[in-house]
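Re: weekly structure request thread

Next one in the queue (101 aa):
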Amino acid sequence: MTFLIDPFAEANAEDSGAGPGTKDYVHVRIQQRNGRKSLTTVQGLKKEFSYNKILKDLKKEFCCNGTVVQDPELGQVIQLQGDQRKNVATFLVQVDSESKL
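Done, posted below.
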């Protein structure tokens, strides 16, 4: 007897997006430039948010420069100078918890 089991059946079911456990993730990453220089990128925010207003608040809060870049695959991506991963994560969580009140 041979049993054919699809090892990716569970993963494919999750990718379909029909399940109740689907989540939208916000990716906060760092890109190394030259030497000690780095960029922090934020992607995956909802499209109804104003990226320019979020960028303005982030720049004012963390005293760094940044820009919004339009990527053909990823959509709009916020770029900040320096390693701002922890700062951005806490900022987004704090703003999200304040907006639910």
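The helical segments are 9-15, 51-62, 85-99. Strands lie at 27-32, 38-43, 66-71, 75-81.
Next request, please.
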